[in-house]
C-alpha cells in the first residue's frame, strides 16, 4: 500500500510488453497462485491482529494506542490485497466526525489506513469471529437498530468528540455500487452538533479490476468469503480517498448538516447527480 497524490503511472520501460504482462497476470493459473499466496499472508495477518487484540486488552489503555495499531494493521491489509491507496487532501485537525459514502467492508480498511479513528458499526459485528474482536479492541462504537437505539450511542459519541477524538461513520446506512450517494441519515449528526465539532465529508471511490469489472462493492447477495477470494485474485485495485473541506456544526440542525455533507461527497462520487439534490448553502458550513 502506498499513499500518493495521483494515480500510478505506467512503467516507462518495455511498454510494448504491457498487454502481454497483463494477460499473463490475469490468466487462471496466475490468479489462482496469487489468491493462494495472498490468502496465506492474510491468515498470518489475521493471527497478528488477534495478537494485537491481546496486547490491547492487557495494556488497558496505559501505553498502547489501539487506533494507531489499527491504522498500521489496515495499511498492511491493503498491501496484502494489492490495493493502492491514493489520498487527496488530508484529515482535519482536532475533534471531528468523519462521514463517508459506503461501498464495501473495504471502506473501513481504507479509511483506517489513512488515519487513526474510531468507527461506528451495527451491534451484530460485536459478536462476529475475528472481526468482532478487532472492532472491540479498537474502541468501535455500536448502534442498535430500531427506535431508541441512537440516544445511548449519542451519549457516548458527544464526550469523545468534545475531548478531541475522531469518529467515522457511514450515514447512508447501507452499501452501494459506488456510482452514486444515497441520502445521509441525520440522527447521528446530532453528536457533532452537541459537541460543536467539525464534520468532515470523505468521498470513497474504487477503480475497476484488470478485467474492467466493478469488484469493490459489497452489495446485494454477496457473501464475505467469495468477495474476499475475488479480491485476492485481482492483480491490483485502486482506492481513492478524498477529504473534503470540514463543515461547521455550529448553528445548524442535523438535517442541514447531513444534507450539506451528502452534497460534498456527491460532487466527487457522482457530480452529475448533484443538481438533483435539494439546494443547500454549503459555504455557510465551512470551518
Report a brief summary of the structure.
The protein is an alpha/beta fold and 287 residues long.
Q: Which keywords apply here?
A:
single chain; about 290 residues; alpha/beta; 9 helices; disordered N terminus; disordered C terminus
Topology:
Blueprint lengths: L17 H8 L2 H32 L6 H16 L1 E6 L7 E5 L5 H9 L3 E5 L8 H7 L3 E3 L6 H13 L3 E4 L19 H7 L2 E9 L17 H10 L3 E7 L10 H16 L18
Description of the molecule:
With 287 residues, the chain is of the alpha/beta class. The protein has a seven-stranded mixed sheet with strand order 1-7-6-2-5-3-4, with helices on both faces. It is built from nine helices and seven strands, in the order αααββαβαβαβαβαβα. The longest helix is centred in the first third of the chain and has 32 residues, at 28-59. Helix 2 (28-59) packs across helix 5 (131-137), helix 2 (28-59) packs across helix 8 (224-233) and helix 6 packs across helix 7. It has one domain (17-285).
Secondary-structure class: alpha/beta
Radius of gyration: 20 Å
Mean pLDDT over the full residue set: 87
Taking strands numbered 1, 2, ... along the chain, how are they ordered across the largest sheet? 1-7-6-2-5-3-4
The secondary-structure element order is HHHEEHEHEHEHEHEH
Summarize the main sheet.
7 strands, mixed
Unreliable stretches? 1-18, 279-286
Strand content: 5-15%
Note the gap between the termini: 31 Å
Helix content percent band: 40-55%
Principal-axis shape equals globular
Total number of distinct structural domains: 1
The helix count comes to 9
How many extended strands? 7
Amino acid at each position: 500500500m502506498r499513499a500518493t497524490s495521483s494515480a500510478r503511472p505506467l512503467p516507462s520501460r518495455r511498454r510494448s510488453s504491457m498487454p502481454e504482462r497483463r494477460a499473463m497476470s490475469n490468466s487462471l493459473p496466475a490468479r489462482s497462485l496469487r489468491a493462494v499466496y495472498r490468502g496465506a499472508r492474510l491468515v498470518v495477518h489475521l493471527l497478528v491482529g488477534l495478537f494485537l487484540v491481546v496486547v490491547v486488552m492487557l495494556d488497558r489503555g496505559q501505553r498502547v494506542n489501539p487506533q494507531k495499531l489499527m491504522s498500521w494493521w489496515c495499511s498492511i491489509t491493503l498491501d496484502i490485497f494489492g490495493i493502492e491507496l491514493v489520498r487527496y487532501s488530508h484529515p482535519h485537525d482536532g475533534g471531528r466526525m468523519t462521514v463517508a459514502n459506503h461501498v464495501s467492508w473495504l471502506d473501513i480498511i481504507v479509511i483506517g489506513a489513512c488515519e487513526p479513528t474510531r468507527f461506528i458499526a451495527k451491534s451484530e459485528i460485536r459478536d462476529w469471529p475475528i472481526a468482532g474482536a478487532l472492532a472491540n479492541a479498537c474502541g468501535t462504537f455500536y448502534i442498535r437498530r430500531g427506535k431508541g437505539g441512537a440516544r445511548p450511542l449519542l451519549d457516548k459519541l458527544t464526550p469523545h468528540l468534545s475531548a478531541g477524538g475522531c469518529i467515522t461513520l457511514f450515514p447512508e446506512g447501507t452499501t452501494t455500487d459506488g456510482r452514486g450517494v444515497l441520502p445521509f441519515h441525520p440522527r447521528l449528526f446530532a453528536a457533532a452538533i452537541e459537541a460543536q465539532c467539525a464534520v468532515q465529508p470523505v468521498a470513497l471511490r474504487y477503480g475497476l479490476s484488470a478485467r474492467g469489472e466493478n469488484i469493490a462493492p459489497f452489495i446485494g447477495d454477496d457473501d464475505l468469503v467469495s468477495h474476499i477470494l475475488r479480491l485476492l485474485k485481482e492483480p491490483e485495485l485502486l482506492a481513492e480517498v478524498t477529504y473534503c473541506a470540514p463543515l461547521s456544526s455550529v448553528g445548524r440542525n442535523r438535517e442541514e448538516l447531513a444534507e450539506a455533507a451528502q452534497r460534498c461527497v456527491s460532487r466527487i462520487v457522482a457530480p452529475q447527480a448533484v443538481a438533483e439534490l435539494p439546494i443547500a448553502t454549503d459555504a455557510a458550513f465551512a470551518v
